[in-house]
Design goal:
The protein has ten helices and four strands; from the N terminus they run ααβαααββαβαααα. The chain folds into two domains: 116 residues, Orthogonal Bundle (Arc Repressor Mutant, subunit A), CATH 1.10.10; 87 residues, Arc Repressor Mutant, subunit A. Helix content is 48%, strand content 9%. It has a four-stranded antiparallel sheet. With 226 residues, it is of the alpha+beta class.
């Protein structure tokens, strides 16, 4: 009996957002297809997915199955679950898909730049992904610190109003490096940088808001008096 691994991030973060049953069916099938592949990089194609009888039979209730599949893949790519590249195969477009992981984003970027070749496939347009693009602070926190509770999410949103995003990313990374994996420790780093400046020369005046007015925009701002 075979099993397919499903990323925790998908179950905790993305699955609650999915309301389209075809997107869900297609995404799970992509997980299954890629999980049982070997080699580097692991990817699937529209033609490969369209050849799956189990997947296509599950999409029959929404009009032509091939159109339903394209729509579902487009939704999954826009949600960030998968990465889509359009390559060239013998003069014809070939759509291929990767999981949206750091290693696969890097592979996709290398393919687009011509640094990595896939047998019979060539890049045909500008890059679709930026492998250097950092994850958002919510994903970064959940991947490195712990579960993103509603309270922590509120704290992160408040921090975005007070500090540059690069500060928050650096504070999370510093907390991880010191094995101090808590929001309280991260917040203390940010407060110290804001009050004393950073060792890289960034001054506290570079925060989004300084002085007493910054507290008025936080969730307890109505309780602050000048």
């Amino acid at each position: 009996m075979k099993f397919t691994a499903v990323p925790d991030f998908f179950l905790n973060k993305l699955l609650p957002q999915i309301s389209d049953i075809n997107e869900l069916k297609t995404t799970l099938h992509v997980f299954q297809t890629l999980y049982h592949k070997r080699g580097y990089p692991r990817f699937t194609s529209f033609k490969e997915l369209a050849a799956s009888k189990s997947l296509m039979s599950g999409l029959e209730g929404s009009g032509p199955p091939d159109k339903a599949l394209r729509r579902a893949l487009k939704m999954a790519a826009e949600r960030g679950t998968i990465v889509h590249l359009e390559l060239d195969k013998d003069g014809e477009p070939e759509d291929i898909y990767f999981l949206n992981t750091e290693s696969d984003r890097q592979a996709a970027a290398r393919i687009e730049k011509g640094e990595l070749e896939l047998t019979g496939l060539k890049a045909r347009g500008p890059a679709y992904v930026d492998a250097s693009e950092p994850p958002d602070i919510f994903s970064l926190y959940e991947q490195n610190i712990g579960m993103l509770t509603p309270l922590i999410a509120d704290e992160l949103r408040d921090a975005e109003q007070l500090y540059p995003q690069s500060w928050i990313v650096d504070a999370i990374n510093e907390a991880v490096a010191l094995n101090k994996r808590s929001w309280r420790y991260i917040a203390r780093i940010l407060e110290n940088w804001s009050a004393e400046g950073r060792s890289d020369g960034t001054h506290r005046g570079d925060t989004k808001k300084t002085g007493p007015d910054r507290y008025l925009k936080q969730k307890y701002g109505h309780m602050v008096q000048r």
